[in-house]
Amino acid sequence: MIRSPLLSELPGIAHGFFTREGGVSDGLYASLNIGLGSADARDKVLENRGRVATALGVAADALALPYQVHSPDVAVVEEAWALGEGPKVDAVVTARVGVAIGVATADCGPILFADASARVVGAAHAGWQGAFKGVIEATVAAMEELGATRDGIVAVLGPTISAAAYEVGPEFVARFVERDPTWERFFAPSPRAGHAMFDLPAFVALRLAEAGVARRGDLGLCTYADEARFFSYRRTTHRREPDYGRLVSAIALR
User: Fold this and answer.
1) Gap between the Cα atoms of 40 and 202, Å rounded
2) Which of 19, 25, 158, 188 has the lowest CB atom count within 10 Å?
3) Which residues pair with 155 in a beta bridge?
4) In DSSP terms, which residues pair with 91 in a beta bridge?
5) 205's torsion region: left (phi>0), alpha (psi -120 to 50) or beta?
6) Closest CA to 66 of 94, 36, 86
7) How many CA atoms lie within 13 A of 30 on its CB side?
8) Cβ proximity of 31 and 24 under 8 Å
9) Which CATH superfamily is domain 5-160+212-253 in?
10) Integer CA distances (angstroms), 92 to 165, 178, 193, in order
11) Res 88: pLDDT
């Protein structure tokens, strides 16, 4: 797993932006695929999830990942739920020791949050839809309800598809510019006529700043470009492969 320098300096916090390495899956899913929604063997996915939990210092069945639906919704986690019974949300927050919370991604932006003083952590799945709809702001607000402060929160963006690999059509650009004309700056010309390259990491950075998060970081890693370490939905699509693995980014209170 990859650790953020910003989060690593916080006392009482365990975290990891896990790569595709270190698991038991094979083929398209090699090797740390945690996606129950994939066609990977269920027993291998469960073993991989257990390894993630163990690496974060919690019980193998204490990893709480939501059923993600590209929403702005957040759940407060009191204890890990049974597999397949997670809430349909795209962010989770907790103030409980003994449970690791996280999100699954394969190009979208995983954001881990922590307020070490308040002893509150969070994780958000920020694809373009979630970031556009307000999942970042909602995560910060949910952490505040548990005692965190915007000045005290540290937030770090993990491996995410970069602008160099994220081509979008004109209707995509129009949706953003209609919402806020200044958001046109997140698009650069594409080699293909009528298309543009979208800078999701920069857009996430803006939304974090607008949410009042004082300390922000970005690992600066592209899921599409680094096949050895990361799964990528878009890379799989371009290759016409039948399926893809899911990465996990997770955080826990020690």
Assistant:
1) 33
2) 188
3) 113, 216
4) 74, 124
5) alpha
6) 86
7) 5
8) yes
9) CNF1/YfiH-like putative cysteine hydrolases (3.60.140.10)
10) 28, 30, 39
11) 97
Spans of all domains in the chain: 5-160+212-253, 163-198
Q: Is 183 exposed, middle or buried (0-12, 13-18, 19+ CB in 10 A)?
A: middle
Nearest to 16 by CA among 128, 116, 101: 101
Q: Tens digit of pLDDT for each residue in 208-254?
A: 999 999 899 999 999 999 999 999 999 999 999 999 999 999 999 99
Between the alpha carbon of residue 238 and those of residues 96, 132, 161, 233, the distances in Å are 41, 25, 14, 9
**What are the backbone angles phi and psi of residue 250, rounded to the nearest 5°?**
-145, 160
Residue 49 has pLDDT above 90, yes or no: yes
**154 touches 6 (CB < 8 A):** yes
Joined tokens for residue 132: 């556009």
Which DSSP state fits 82? P
State if pTM tops 0.90. Answer: yes
* Neighbour-count burial of 46, counting CB atoms closer than 10 A to its CB (0-12 exposed, 13-18 middle, 19+ buried): middle
Q: How confident is the model at residue 83 (pLDDT cuts 50, 70, 90)?
A: confident
Nearest to 220 by CA among 204, 209, 241: 204
Query: Which position has the token pair 């907790």?
Result: 94
Over range 61-81, report the average pLDDT: 97
